[in-house]
Amino acid sequence: MTNTPSYQNPKVILATTPEEKKKCADVRVKVFVEELGYPPELESLDTMDAIATLWLATCEKVDIKNNTITTIPVGTIRMLPYDEDDTVGVLSRLAVVSETRGMRLGQKLVEAFEDGVKDAGKKAIMVQGVAEKRSFYEALGYTVEMDETYIKDGSPHYKFWKRNL
Ligand SMILES: CC(C)(COP(=O)(O)OP(=O)(O)OC[C@H]1O[C@@H](n2cnc3c(N)ncnc32)[C@H](O)[C@@H]1OP(=O)(O)O)[C@@H](O)C(=O)NCCC(=O)NCCS
């Protein structure tokens, strides 16, 4: 029998309280800064949560060794306005911690986000996504309209779109 923790009962909620929003920011620091090596300023200088709608993913962490079950934050996503067109919602800072990847939390977060975008009356979604995630976004119905990468935060990105929501 293995003693490693397992993760179950994934959930996505709208993050509305300061505590929930802080958990979203903590997940982003864990993934983007600590794991992927982006500069800490990416998060510490980010002020966009003030105007964003945020979602938080949680899981129950089941520690067989200690016989404990704890609900922990494991993922996040946010909706931002698009400066050039207020009928567009911007998908931003999608992250799932490495321990719980492959459990469809990324997909669940995008689905919750899309419901929120539609509820807000938007007609389209744009995301500036890292180039290596192209197949992830394409599988979720996003398309690259200009098949050319550009450098953002030091790595190649595409603009992905989902229109006619
Ligand atoms: C991208 C990310 C959010 C995916 O989260 P996840 O919970 O592991 O993804 P899911 O389990 O919901 O996977 C959904 C689908 O995407 C695929 N997928 C998952 N990660 C992928 C990746 N890195 N590249 C390509 N496809 C991927 C899965 O195989 C699955 O496809 P399937 O339907 O054919 O089985 C997660 O890997 C992550 O946080 N990465 C680091 C941060 C990051 O890069 N964020 C995006 C910035 S643009």
Automatic annotation (TrEMBL):
It comes from the Eukaryota. Residues 11-165 form the N-acetyltransferase domain. Pfam families: Acetyltransf_7. PROSITE patterns: GNAT. GO terms for molecular function: N-acetyltransferase activity. This is Acyl-CoA N-acyltransferase. It comes from Phascolomyces articulosus. The lineage of its organism: Eukaryota, Fungi, Fungi incertae sedis, Mucoromycota, Mucoromycotina.
